[in-house]
Write a structure and sequence with these properties.
Two copies of one chain form a homodimer. By secondary structure, chain A is an alpha+beta fold. In chain A, α1 crosses α2 and α2 packs across α4. Chain A is globular, with a radius of gyration of 15 Å. Chain A starts with 13 loop residues before the first strand and ends with a helix. At the A-B interface, β4 and β7 of A face β4 and β7 of B.
């Protein structure tokens, strides 16, 4: 079996949040792959994740339903692409379960994305990288303006705080 | 690790060619995953496959360039999704290499597809299943009218004849 692909970043098409986190990869993995735990931290407050379904294998379903403070409902369905325990989780909204091509582009960015959480052990915990890959500059820009760095950063803060509270 | 997903067929959205082939899974796998061999059988004559690039791992590039008898050029780029030796090869044109969402829908079906070659040992060789998954009935119908069953069937005949000639 060949080694997994790397994710060389294209600064015009990709967004990346990189941080050293003082949790071991195993705890971050658990937070990302346990639906009941993910619901506790996944949305920056005051948004809440009210449903989460995971079939944790390539082609398996990954669905989250998020509610906003004004009654907004974001129901995002996709599928996992790579599931390598404690190392990498890759998924997309370009497919539904079973790799079926999606028909409705993500309304927030008017397109589709692939996301990867990459974890590596680090002397004080983990090197955490969250990468989001787009098909065009306009979709990448839309995602950035939507508050990618702030949103994913706050979610990571919430993840860390929650895992430390357990 | 969970077991790989199954591919339940939706008759309105999916196409399937299923056949017993008198070659062992290993030989069919070799024909599908060796660029120089794939070029010998992949296109129903008089079309020819003139280029083939494979990075045989999830997220890796799969590109074929096919020339038609009237000078047509079909340059199809996608990426692999699952590579399980001698058992299953899954790829899509909804992504370029590295799972980057594609911007140009496949012109033949006005959309994207995911394809899976599934191989199982059989007493007289292999059970061969080629499945193509679409996002809508119109794309599935377009692919069917394009001659999916005939085209993939002839290609399989060519694969078998070529592997037996080696």
């Amino acid at each position: 079996m060949n080694t997994p692909i790397s994710f060389p970043l294209d600064p015009k098409l990709d967004l990346c949040l990189e941080r050293i986190v003082d949790l071991p990869p195993e705890k971050i993995w658990k937070a990302w792959t346990t639906p009941s735990i993910l619901m506790e931290w996944f949305c920056p407050l005051p948004w809440k994740t009210v449903q989460c379904e995971m079939d944790l294998r390539p082609g398996g379903k990954f669905r989250t339903v998020m509610n906003g403070p004004e009654g907004e409902v974001h129901d995002v369905s996709g599928c996992f692409l790579e599931v390598i325990q404690n190392q990498r989780l890759v998924w997309t909204d370009a497919f539904g379960p079973g790799y079926r091509p999606s028909k409705e582009p993500n309304p927030c960015i008017n397109g589709f994305f692939t996301a990867a959480i990459l974890l590596e052990p680090h002397e004080t915990g983990s090197l955490y990288r969250a990468i989001v890959i787009h098909g065009s500059e306009s979709e990448c820009e839309a995602h950035k303006k939507l508050g990618f760095h702030e949103g994913w950063g706050i979610a990571l803060d919430q993840l860390v705080a929650h895992m430390k509270s357990l």
